[in-house]
Design brief:
The chain has helices at 2-10, 16-30, 42-52, 55-64, 97-103, 144-148, 170-177, 256-263, 267-280, 293-317, 329-345, and strands at residues 77-78, 81-92, 118-126, 132-139, 159-163, 182-186, 197-198, 204-208, 219-231, 237-246. It has 350 residues and is an alpha+beta fold.
Length: 350
């Protein structure tokens, strides 16, 4: 059932019976044939998966959450710190009463609800390799800052954490910095960042004020402000202001231009998430299979296990010093699909 559940993510558009036949055909041709074995029905498979539960896949995923990049892997380190990124996504799940009651539907910022219940997830990804170092999930109504607390145990003093403006809060910053990790987060316009001292490079020292005095003291930060100008196909220019807050207070050791360039490596995580949602899931219109929250959880952790296996395959295939991002995730995924049924396609000895 472990192998079968993982294989379901290799063949997301196939039903349980077809996935099982792919696995069984490959095994039968390498052994003594089918014999009197009868393929179980969908109901029996579902019951067996339910008995297995989600915990084995969660434990398996935890064993894969090991940094993969080395100092010679492009994009992994900055100034001796391993760069990691926090980002989130949602997954549509089947429209059942149990799933709707647990996950809710969300609204994507609009007044109308989504057509399907949604799981909200958050991942911590290593920049460069896009390997996942931690993950958390919950109902669609769960805030990303709430989910981020579950990622904190994966942080350490050798990391530099990138995050977008959805994560900016005094409380979460204090907790993340308390792990010893360095932070570089984009701040929302609602944040007040008083100028305490302007530095030679144009950045300035500021502070994050607590919600109230009883919560604690202000946290010193350095602020890097810059604008990004884009031009559309009609020649119209649009300028967007970025304000990054960082625990890296030394302007000489950590130049502003390098931090601004580094922040945009945050999109590495979004590229990995796109591989999850498009290549593995099979496209944005594909729902997860499970009709109950506990089985959705099983699917979620199994999906991340398959994602990690593909990233491991890419790492194995990437020569030292080459950017792993140059290896096609889609082709690596197809190679994993082929390997699952290779025995059925290979010539057999007579």
């Amino acid at each position: 059932m472990m192998v079968f559940t993982l294989a379901c993510w290799l063949f997301m558009r196939s039903g349980y019976g077809l996935v099982l036949s792919r696995l069984a055909d490959a095994q039968a041709l390498t052994g003594g044939g089918w014999g009197d074995w009868q393929a179980p029905g969908t109901g029996s498979i579902t019951k067996a998966k339910a008995k297995l539960g989600a915990e084995p896949f969660k434990l398996l995923f935890a064993r894969t959450t090991v940094p993969a990049g080395t100092p010679v892997t492009p994009g992994v380190f900055h100034a001796g710190l391993r760069v990691v990124t926090v980002d989130g996504f949602t997954l549509d799940v089947p429209d059942t009463a149990a799933n709707e009651g647990f996950f809710g539907r969300g609204g994507n910022g609009s007044r109308s609800q989504n057509p399907y219940p949604q799981l909200r997830a958050l991942v911590l990804a290593e920049s460069g390799t896009r390997v996942l170092l931690a993950a958390a999930h919950g109902p669609s109504s769960t805030g990303e800052q709430t989910l981020a607390v579950d990622l904190l145990p994966a942080l350490d003093s050798g990391m530099l954490v990138l995050a977008d403006r959805n994560f900016a809060s005094w409380k979460l910053w204090q907790a993340a910095a308390g792990t010893g990790a360095q932070l570089c987060w984009r701040m929302s316009a609602s944040f007040t960042l008083p100028v305490r001292q302007v530095l030679d490079d144009g950045t300035y020292l500021s502070q994050l004020n607590p919600p109230s005095k009883k919560d604690g003291d202000p946290i010193p930060v350095r602020v890097v402000e810059y604008s990004v100008t884009t031009t559309d196909t009609h020649g119209v220019e649009t300028s967007e202001l970025f304000a990054l807050a960082t625990t890296l207070l030394d302007a000489q050791a950590y130049p502003a231009i390098e931090l601004a360039q580094l922040y945009h490596a945050r999109w590495q995580a979004e590229t990995g998430i796109a591989d999850l949602k498009t290549t593995i899931r099979g496209g944005p219109e594909v729902l997860l299979r499970s009709k109950t929250p506990i089985m959705v959880e099983q699917e979620f952790w199994a999906m991340l296990c398959v994602y990690q296996a593909i990233r491991d395959l890419i790492g194995y295939a990437t020569p030292a010093g080459l950017d792993p991002g140059r290896i096609s995730f889609k082709r690596a995924f197809q190679a994993a699909q082929d390997s699952t049924t290779r025995a059925a396609l290979s010539p057999q000895p007579t």
